Amino acid sequence: MEYFFKRLFSDRRSNFIFLLFFVLMLIDVFMLYKSFGGYAPNYSTFLAGNSEGHYAQMLLLWLLPVYLVFGASYWSLSDFNSGNLLSIMIRKDRKYYWKVYNQVNFFYGFCLMFLSAVINYGAVTIIFRKEKAVPFMVEHSISVGDFQTLLHNSILWELSHPGLSNWIHIIMGAVITGCMSVIISTVNIFTKSIYYTVFIVISIWYLLISITPSIMVSFQPFTEYTFSLKFMYLISIILLMSICLIIQRKWWLNYDFV
């Protein structure tokens, strides 16, 4: 475990992607301020998507799998093509590599989105602390425990509890990103080519974001779509990741690395 985490923190490519996420979210804050002067903090977050043109959101969320391909998911390709995988297998057994490799993959994807979004949330809370403007009309307050409204008329619940709504979407977005990192690592072990992997995962991702409503609703608070739909996407991605882990485990235990 220590080897993998040391590798993660020393990997320049992975660190650069994290920096890129941070910069894109910072650019979104600047664009929001330049366009509208900003809203109340909970409506100025990156995931809320209220900046004009949504350019930063498109660059980050539409290309999300591409960033993940070059993160921790890339290790299996790198290790396999360089022969490093066999030396790791000699020091550690296959089950250990499979388990820790996927734990670190999920951890990387989750933290990539979670930490970036949390930093963005902190930034807009400070920058727009004096702003009171809200881009929606709040008709009446809904109880935080009103789960019927939460699941089926979510916008009313979210506007009553914008801070909690932001945090729920930050966590959902982070879990989906972590799952995608594991799914990409599964594609890697079968393609053994960065070009094929990029093509496959981009095709899958664009299928998910091109249908209506798309998986993007699970990232964005304050939309007309319900939490029932958002949770359905979340559960679907978790199930797909679980299937990938089962396939991966069988491959790792049976593949002849010699």
Q: Can you tell me the number of structural domains? A: 1
Q: Report the span from N to C terminus.
A: 24 Å
Give the SSE order as H and E letters: HHHHHHHHHHHH
Question: Mean pLDDT, rounded to whole units?
Answer: 85
Rg, Cα atoms, Å: 20 Å
How much strand content do the residues show?
under 5%
Number of alpha- plus pi-helical segments: 12
Transmembrane segments: 16-36, 56-77, 104-128, 167-187, 194-219, 231-247
Keywords: Membrane, Transmembrane, Transmembrane helix
Describe this structure in words.
This protein is mainly α and 258 residues long. It has one domain. It has twelve helices and no strands. It has helices spanning 2-10, 12-36, 55-62, 64-69, 74-82, 84-91, 94-127, 147-152, 154-160, 162-191, 194-210, 227-254. Helix 2 runs parallel beside helix 7 (94-127), helix 10 runs antiparallel to helix 11 (194-210) and helix 10 runs parallel beside helix 12 (227-254). The model has no long low-confidence stretch (mean pLDDT 85).
Give descriptors for this structure.
mainly alpha, single chain, 0% strand, 12 helices, 72% helix, 258 residues
Topology of this protein?
Blueprint: H1 2-10, H2 12-36, H3 55-62, H4 64-69, H5 74-82, H6 84-91, H7 94-127, H8 147-152, H9 154-160, H10 162-191, H11 194-210, H12 227-254
Helix pairs in contact: 2-3, 2-7, 7-10, 7-12, 9-10, 10-11, 10-12
